[in-house]
Amino acid sequence: MTTVNAATNLSTADTRQASGRREGVVLILGSSLTIMGAVMIAPILPKLGAEFGPLNPHADLLVPLAVTGPALAIALCAPLAGWLADRIGRKALLVIATLLYALLGVTPVILGDLQSIVVVRLLFGCAEAAVMTCCSTLIADYWHGGERLRYINRQMVTIGLVGALFFVVGGALGEYSWRLPFLLYLLPLLLVPAMLKVLWEPARSQPSTVAQDAERVAVWPLVLGYLLIFGGMVLTFIAPVQVPILLVQLGITSSTLMGLAAGLSLISTLGGSLAWPLLRRTLKGAGTNTVLLLLFALGLWLLTRAQSYNEVALAMVLHGLGAGLLVPNVMAPVMEALTARTRGRGLGGLTACLYLGQFVSPLVVAALVVYAGDLRHAIQWLACASLAAAVLWGVAGVSRLRSVI
């Protein structure tokens, strides 16, 4: 009888492991929708400005909002999405949000005025908030410990691949028409049947869940994670928004080359994401934060000194390596700081800070330009700020190491 029971348990474990892999694929692909939200249309900003600029006196403000507006909507809606995920469940909300993501994403193809495009993009951001929050929450629900870290890492690697691919594809399609990249937002419809079939709603009455609910939220790691993801995304979003402007200043106006330059930063996030597990094991969280902030500082500094396309590309590679380390190194301790019942809201807050950083990035740069004099000097100031933050994290890491010893 013992042998039979052992064989049954082993079979059940194998089934769950196989199911976990399928669920992981669906959630990782679902997470990649979030990077598609902005990168596909960033290379067409000059074309949007050229078409609507002469017709709209506020085009200088509205055109960037077509890219950054969804980030504002996500920042505002992600906490609500997290609350809904905790209250009504993750799976149903994820499926509905994915459908809305596709429909709202493609709508600008048929619109003829800039204001309508911006409004639709804001609504699109609301759907995107729910997609990202639900995917991250389900990853935290389905896996724990080292397995969770592996899926976080795979999530970041896939996001880097998808982001780089669609940045280049969006730039190439933008050569023919600014409307064409929006058609790519129909692709997530292919993912909905897999979400319905593979994903399952986590049980809320499991003993492990009750034990986790008895714990309290670790507030300090949560606050540090929120602050770091906010500041890091201010630095990260310089690549898709400001690099095309710097390339135009160098006399490079091809949207394909603009897409390739920022795409290099995105694909370089793969290197950071792949290196993250090793760095975290050897340098711990604070040491890894130091490295990623140093990479941000170096990449941005070189960007401001670049005089050719190749020099811009090198800066984007270093910048992307730092960006690849950022999200997993923040997400892992934030997930650990949350309990099962607060996971949706806590990760919704993280998503809000992430996209709030994206939204304010061009506003921060614009404000700094007023005092610094030009775009290059403004980015240099941000590079110095990143260097200062790296020093603080380095000191914190050394102090913690000494206290352990």
UniProtKB/TrEMBL annotation:
PANTHER family reported for this sequence: CHLORAMPHENICOL EFFLUX PUMP RV0191, PURINE EFFLUX PUMP PBUE
Q: How is this protein named in the record?
A: MFS transporter
Name where it's found.
Cell membrane
Gene3D superfamilies named among the record's database cross-references: MFS general substrate transporter like domains
Q: Which SUPFAM superfamilies match?
A: MFS general substrate transporter
Q: What is one term from the GO cellular component aspect held by the record?
A: plasma membrane
Residue stretches spanning the membrane:
25-45, 65-85, 92-111, 117-143, 155-174, 180-199, 219-239, 259-279, 286-306, 312-335, 347-372, 378-398
Stored PROSITE patterns: MFS (PS50850), SUGAR_TRANSPORT_1 (PS00216)
Q: Which Pfam families match?
A: MFS_1
Q: Give the keywords, sorted.
A: Cell membrane, Membrane, Transmembrane, Transmembrane helix
Superkingdom, taxonomy of origin: Bacteria
InterPro entries from the UniProt entry: MFS, MFS_dom, MFS_Efflux_Transporters, MFS_trans_sf, Sugar_transporter_CS
Question: Which GO terms fall under molecular function for this chain's record?
Answer: transmembrane transporter activity
Its membrane topology, per UniProt? Multi-pass membrane protein
Q: Which residues form the Major facilitator superfamily (MFS) profile domain?
A: 23-405
